[in-house]
Design goal:
Distance between the termini: 44 Å
Structural class: alpha+beta
Number of domains: 2
Order of helices and strands: HHHHHHHEEEEEE
Number of strands: 6
Low-confidence stretches: 147-155
Shape: elongated
Mean pLDDT: 88
Radius of gyration: 29 Å
Largest sheet: 6 strands, antiparallel
Length: 285
């Protein structure tokens, strides 16, 4: 189960990163292992934040009941908690499909995490409301003549079955929202990392020089072209100011060192006997 999940997030991140340069990752021949390795960057912080949030919620799950027991109207306070959780939870779960059907109003805040986050928060609130009612089956029943403190009781088999079904449905909704959220984060992280790589002048990518028998027409900001006039030399053209973006079994994906989005191209150079590509010893300069 874990491998497909990591594969998905790794593919989303990779598609965003290479998509920034106008490259379809399908051309690059990535393996499952490559996508799994690339999933670490977009998954790490969402997992950390998610686990910390889960620990906080689990630790605080009894807080409303404890607070209610310290008041004179325990039942009333719990009823308020229950209604608030249902109303806000249902509203948040219903928000994404409503927006999907009716469209985004002009006044609606633009945030890529609002809709997936509403699914997660809404499912948590509805799950809490379900648990609260399951643990306090007398919550909405007529109180006895002599009010007594609400206690935990076993629910009937039918109620227990319905509770399980509801919790499974809410878990599925919350899981879908979590996937949506992390997928959005992975896509944005891929774009941000690609921009950072570009802004740094591709400092972390290998610098290469290209030797060619025939002119390759390699152009771009920062690319230097020179004719080789040495007698007996096989290669006649020399290109520098280029970084190696990726390579496959038959193609080099090169990019000008001062490449800017929307203005220049990524260079696809085939592996051939008439072309030689060397690593530049001045890579760090």
């Amino acid at each position: 189960m874990l491998v497909p999940v990591l594969y998905y997030f790794g593919s989303v991140y990779t598609r965003a990163w290479y998509g920034y340069f106008g490259i379809d990752p399908g051309l690059l021949g990535f393996s499952v292992t490559d996508f799994l390795r690339r999933s670490i960057t977009p998954v790490f912080w969402p997992v950390v934040v998610g686990m910390v949030t889960l620990l906080v919620l689990v630790s605080a799950r009894e807080a409303p009941v404890i607070l209610a027991r310290r008041t004179r109207h325990e039942r009333r306070v719990l009823q308020v908690w229950h209604v608030v959780a249902i109303v806000f939870g249902a509203a948040m779960v219903a928000l994404p499909p409503i927006i999907r059907i009716l469209g985004v109003p002009s006044w609606f805040p633009h945030n890529n995490y609002l809709l997936p986050g509403s699914l997660v928060i809404g499912s948590v609130l509805l799950g809490y409301a379900t648990t609260l009612y399951s643990n306090n089956p007398d919550l909405w029943r007529t109180p006895p003549r002599r009010p007594r403190r609400l206690t935990r009781r076993r629910t009937r088999e039918a109620n227990r079955s319905s509770t399980v079904v509801i919790m499974i449905a809410l878990f599925t909704i919350g899981l879908a929202g979590s996937f949506w959220t992390v997928g959005q984060y992975a896509s944005e992280q891929g774009l941000d990392d690609a921009r950072s790589t570009t802004d740094s002048g591709f400092r972390d990518l290998p610098s290469v020089v290209v030797f060619s028998v025939d002119g390759l027409g390699i152009t771009g900001t920062g690319v230097q072209t020179r004719d080789i006039d040495v007698p007996g030399e096989k290669y006649r053209y020399y290109y520098s100011g280029i970084r190696l973006l990726h390579q496959t079994a038959d193609t080099y994906f090169l990019i000008p060192q001062q490449w800017k989005p929307g203005h220049e191209r990524v260079l696809l150079i085939p592996r051939a006997d008439t072309i030689r590509i060397d690593l530049d010893a001045r890579h760090g300069k």
